[in-house]
TrEMBL record, chain A:
InterPro entries: MAT1/Tfb3, MAT1_centre, Znf_RING, Znf_RING/FYVE/PHD, Znf_RING_CS. Residues 33-75 form the RING-type domain. This is RNA polymerase II transcription factor B subunit 3. Its main location: nucleus. It comes from the Eukaryota. Pfam families: MAT1, zf-C3HC4_5. It is found in: Nucleus. The keyword 4Fe-4S does not apply. One of its GO terms (cellular component) is transcription factor TFIIH holo complex. One of its GO terms (molecular function) is zinc ion binding.
From TrEMBL, chain B:
Residues 14-32 have a biased composition (Low complexity). InterPro entries: Cyclin-like_sf (IPR036915), Cyclin/Ssn8 (IPR043198), Cyclin_C_2 (IPR031658). Keywords: Cyclin. This is Cyclin C-terminal domain-containing protein. Residues 341-356 have a biased composition (Basic and acidic residues). Residues 170-273 form the Cyclin C-terminal domain. Coiled coil: none annotated. Residues 1-13 have a biased composition (Polar residues). GO terms for biological process: regulation of transcription by RNA polymerase II. Residues 1-63, 336-362 are annotated as: Disordered. CDD domains: CYCLIN_CCNH_rpt1, CYCLIN_CCNH_rpt2. One of its GO terms (molecular function) is cyclin-dependent protein serine/threonine kinase regulator activity.
Length: 364, 362
């Protein structure tokens, strides 16, 4: 069901179309072109085309005659639509109301192309589907006013979510492709399996034949009265062969060759554009002295320089940045701590001042 | 060879060496219930007995005044610094040992425990605290008339005296950080920063150790004060200025804080300027100071606690008492156990009663 120009449809619907489109088609609609009144009797290959602008049918000859030289008005009386040659297509459904509804649904689906995975809960997905269905219904069966409203909503939505729609379309296309690939791979595997089975069957047949010949040969060559022994030997050989075969089959089966259909595809991990932030957005950079490694490179003296450049320092894993961080921390930590503010005015009992109480001599 | 006064030379109670020289950490037994003649005016039993023996009653000795004690502690701190210089100890060890000694004498008197012994002990213990390990034998050989046992005898006492706070925060590393920051900010004034670095370090090596700066100011404040003595402009650069584009209330708050920091640094500077590093040599070379300290030491000889003058004997007595107590506990099983239980109660009450940031006295 390929259609030409499906995506190029202009989206305006005027009043009056619905009425004419909804009207039951006359019985002889397939026989006479309403524009040029040609009947099938005169033209065996007559083909009717419609334009989704107004869904008025006319024969191919009329379309080419009227619209070859560029856009023109619809030849139907009272229909003032401007139609283009490019927009014409043959109707898939005999009933043009159905044709129209299908067209509208396709258009709405192209715009509202979210899938269930995009929603957090099933309820919200169902709400979304309901909203889309209401909009579609407005477009298909609604009155003039509601249709216009729905139309404008649709256009607005399309304009606002252009990127998202494009992305979803791409995803859908991709998943379509992968599904097709998987189906093709399945088919291929089945074909190969069948071929292998056929080959195995043929091998088995050849083997059986050879055994039979061998048995007959040995029976022929065996001494008189030793026939049972020869038979036994051949049977043993055959049994051993069978055992080997089963073992080989088992290993082949274990190695793979099985395929399970209908498995859900693995989801690719969601990749955020931003790197993971363990602090959750809290800025931990110090206010005053920045001890980031690139800033620490600005601090230098002879000793730090030698620790930075000489191999004997660096080989042991010594990092002068740690030293720098520590000395800078000690230089400024505690500057705003005032011991005099914390002092409580009271005498400190010393050994002598404590009344000379020698019972307190031994606290431990 | 430097000359240090040792207990052997200035103590009327001769020292005896005992056979066992185990570390002091095992000496946590109870101390003998002795009274300090110097600081306990009430007649306790032991004192009464001594009074009875001495036929003409001895008048109470002339005690040191607090000011004289402070001067003596300062003198002994300088002696410690001198000894550390003589032993070629690193700066951190020297400073830690000096602060240990000063912390010890915050809650104890030089009249109670002999500073000449504790000076060596704290120097030795300072080595340990800073992770600079010195062999005891080698260490005691550096000093005249000193045995390893004498040094170890006061070790546990010192630990108790400093309340087992072995971590001393020094301003030396802070100075390195400040100098690095200054060199980054003033790349064109290298000679100025370099000179300030050397002089400030000299100040930090001496002035804060012999004053009370470590007790009143944080290491970075002490460091800033020493820098401000050398070059006041550098401190102005270092102390963070209020941000230019911040809102008004915050900027005001910031400015107030900065002013407070500058005031604190100025106070600390005043304290440090009392003891500039140039005076270090004076303590043992200038005749006036040596002469001034001599009568004080003589006075100390007369008024100190005779029972605690010899730390070796004191420790031995404590250890013996512990052994005796254990023997007694072993002999009377139940009473030993219950006696122990009863004995703990008063101790707890005693600990509760002494409401002091440093804990009860030793």
């Amino acid at each position: 069901m390929s259609r030409l120009g499906g995506s190029a449809i202009s989206v305006r619907h005027s009043s009056g179309i619905a009425a004419s489109a909804a009207a039951p088609a006359p019985v002889d609609q397939d026989e006479t072109c309403p524009v040029c009144k040609t009947t099938r009797y005169f033209n065996r290959d007559m083909e009717f085309l419609i334009n989704p602008e107004c869904y008025h049918r006319m024969c191919k000859t009329c379309v080419e005659r009227i619209f070859k030289d560029g856009p023109n008005q619809c030849p139907y009386a009272g229909c003032h639509k401007t139609l283009r040659l490019r927009g014409f297509k043959s109707a898939f459904f005999a009933d043009l109301t159905v044709e129209r509804e299908v067209d509208i649904r396709r258009r709405v689906d192209a715009v509202f192309n979210k899938v269930e995975e995009d929603f957090e809960t099933l309820d919200s997905f169902n709400d979304y589907l309901y909203m889309v269905e209401c909009l579609t219904d407005d477009l298909v069966n609604g009155s003039d006013e509601s249709r216009r409203k729905a139309e404008s909503q649709l256009l607005e939505w399309e304009a606002q979510h252009k990127a998202e729609i494009e992305r979803n379309r791409k995803l859908a296309r991709e998943s379509d492709e992968t599904r097709q690939r998987r189906v093709a791979a399945d088919k291929d595997a089945t074909r190969q399996r069948r071929q292998l089975e056929r080959q195995a069957e043929a091998d088995e047949k050849v083997n059986a034949l050879r055994f039979r010949e061998e048995m007959l040969d040995s029976l022929q060559n065996a001494e008189m009265g030793r026939a049972t022994e020869a038979m036994d030997r051949i049977m043993l050989k055959k049994r051993g062969q069978q055992k080997r075969d089963t073992v080989m089959d088992a290993t082949a089966a274990a190695a793979g060759g099985l395929s399970i259909r209908g498995l859900r595809e693995k989801k690719t991990a969601v990749v955020d554009e931003k790197p993971y932030d363990p602090y959750g957005g809290i800025v931990v950079a110090p206010d005053r002295i920045d001890v980031a490694p690139e800033k620490l490179a600005g601090y230098t003296n002879e000793w730090v320089e030698s620790a930075r450049t000489k191999t004997e320092f660096r080989a042991g894993g010594y990092n002068p940045d740690e030293y720098l961080t520590r000395v800078l921390f000690e230089a400024f930590s505690g500057l705003g701590v005032f011991i005099s503010d914390e002092r409580v005015e009271k005498g400190v009992p010393t050994a002598a001042a404590g009344g000379g109480n020698m019972d307190l001599d031994e606290p431990f | 060879m430097m000359i240090l006064s040792t207990p052997g030379s200035n103590s009327p109670w001769p020292t005896k060496t005992s056979g066992t020289g185990s570390p002091a950490s095992s000496a946590c037994g109870p101390s003998p219930r002795t009274a300090c003649a110097s600081c306990d005016p009430r007649p306790t039993p032991s004192r009464r007995s001594r009074l009875r023996l001495a036929s003409p009653p001895i008048p109470p000795p002339d005690f040191l005044t607090p000011d004289e004690e402070t001067r003596l502690v300062k003198f002994f701190t300088v002696e410690l610094i001198r000894a550390a210089q003589f032993c070629e100890m690193p700066t951190e060890v020297r400073a830690t040992a000096a602060i240990f000694l000063r912390r010890f004498y915050v809650t104890n008197s030089v009249m109670t425990y002999p500073a000449t012994d504790l000076l060596k002990t704290s120097l030795f213990f300072g080595c340990k605290a800073e992770g600079y390990f010195y062999k005891l034998v080698q260490f005691s050989e550096k000093f005249p008339n000193t045995t390893g046992e004498q040094i170890l005898a006061g070790e546990f006492l010192l630990c108790q005296g400093i309340r087992f706070a072995f971590d001393v925060r020094h301003p030396f590393r802070a100075l390195e950080g400040a100098i690095l920051e200054l060199r980054r900010r003033l790349p064109d004034e290298d000679s100025r920063v370099r000179r300030a670095h050397g002089q400030a370090r000299e100040i930090l090596k001496f002035s804060p150790l012999v004053t009370d700066a470590y007790f009143h100011y944080t290491p970075s404040q002490i460091m800033m004060a020493s820098l401000s003595i050398v070059d006041e402009g550098l401190v102005d650069i270092l102390v963070p200025t209020p941000p230019q584009n911040g809102d008004q209330s915050k900027a005001k708050e910031h400015a107030e804080m900065r002013q407070k920091i500058m005031n604190t640094i100025a106070d600390c500077r005043r304290m440090l300027e009392e003891e500039p590093p140039e005076r270090m040599m004076d303590y043992w070379s200038s005749p006036e100071i040596v002469k001034a300290i001599k009568p004080l030491r003589k006075k100390l000889q007369k008024c100190r606690d005779p029972d605690r003058a010899n730390l070796v004997n004191l420790q031995r007595a404590r250890r013996e008492q512990t052994v005796n107590k254990e023997k007694k506990a072993a002999k009377l099983d139940d009473t030993g156990v219950f006696g122990e239980e009863l004995g703990r109660e008063p101790k707890r009450a005693k600990l509760d009663k002494a409401d002091d940031v440093f804990g009860p006295p030793l």
